[in-house]
Amino acid sequence: MPKTVAVTLLSKPGCHLCDDARVVIEAVLADFAARGVPIAFEEVDIMGDPRLARLHAEEIPVVLVNGRRHAIWRVDAARLSAALQKRTGIRNTKEKP
């Protein structure tokens, strides 16, 4: 059985790059979900946490995979997919788990 992976998008309201990142993440996660691969997704508004706002004010969006920074500003679908494949133990999202 594949390992569950956590993907977190750190964003803030009015951020067009955050909107773009969300679209890419949702498409990648939809591919994994269609294959029955468990991926937990959470979006966190940095404006609700003073520490996150201070740390990431100039480098959002930030994508975390299992709590580790995967990307800032722009999200590449192929790179995110490869990272998730590695962490779930799935060789290819086109294969059934």
Task: Compose a concise summary of this entry.
With 97 residues, the chain is of the alpha+beta class. It has three helices and four strands. The chain is elongated and about 35 Å long.
List the helices and strands and how they pair.
Layout: E1 5-11, H1 16-34, E2 39-45, H2 50-56, E3 62-65, E4 68-72, H3 77-88
Parallel strand pairs: 1-2
Antiparallel strand pairs: 1-3, 3-4
Helix pairs in contact: 1-3
Low-pLDDT segments: none
Which series of helices and strands comes N to C?
A: EHEHEEH
Number of helices: 3
Mean pLDDT: 90
Q: Please give the radius of gyration in angstroms.
A: 14 Å
SSE-based structural type: alpha+beta
Structure characterization notes:
There is one protein chain. The protein is α+β, with helices and mostly antiparallel strands and 97 residues long. It is built from three helices and four strands; from the N terminus they run βαβαββα. The protein has helices spanning 16-34, 50-56, 77-88; strands at residues 5-11, 39-45, 62-65, 68-72. The N and C termini lie close together (7 Å).
Keyphrases for this structure?
single chain, 97 residues, alpha+beta, 4-stranded mixed sheet, 3 helices, 4 strands
